[in-house]
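<amino_acid_chain>
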Amino acid sequence: MLADNVKSNLLLHLIVFVWGFTAILGNLITLDALPLVWYRIVIAVITLLLLFAFKRQTLKDSKSNITRFLAAGIVIALHWLTFFWAIKVSNVSVTLACLSTGAFFTSILEPIFYKRKIIAYEVFFGFIVVCALGLIFSVSTEYVEGILLALSAACLSAVFSIINGKFAQHSSASIITFYEMVGGLLILSLYLLFSGGFTVEFFTVTTTDWLWLLVLGTFCTAFAFIGSVYVMKYITPFTVMLTINLEPVYGILLAILIFKDSEKMSPEFYVGALLILSTVVLNAIVKNRKKIKVAKI
């Protein structure tokens, strides 16, 4: 059991590192955000289908559930679209720093979705996040569009997480993910079809871009998801949540190493990013302690 726990922790850090690398790939791939996301989902869906076939896993679920999963896929498609769009118009560091506000948006949206009272310490942490964002805005005026897109991506990520939290209570995580990706693919394909986006240029992809897209669609999407589900068998949700908070740290460090000067920001930017990350970690710690106290009562 201990060996499984150690292996799972190592696997989790590898998965988070891979997720941090997703932003790097978004910068390396020369495609615009829309075709990039479309190809990512296509590759992920094909990969999952192959895995389902290999494992002889069924894709059956109730029609009502499948409809809800497909609809939720629109949210994840928009999240990825705004995420990669933010990278294209700003840089990896700005995007990942702002994406860390997902926990802040969750604290606002959860009471609405689950009809519970707003918690005082979440409001306090939210105030710190707003101050940190103000600091980032003040020293990154040339990246305003990217900041706004990244904040939109963070908000959509929060919505998506809350929706999936409800779905996961009744259905398999792999089934949910598959149909959500199909839903995202359908909505993007319909938009491209009616907007005339399926042009010759759209399907003209360089060999290098194909390589990075395959890495993005398989390892960073399909396999990373399967791994994240596996580790939940051996690691507590609190540990998983804290480790996932390292994603922007890994991503920003990788961006500085790979892209160098284009990713170097002012000291005030890093102070703001650190404040956001700190509130995310503190929020997780406070929540975990409260759960432990409730369990002891």
Notes: Residues 267-296 form the longest helix (30 residues).
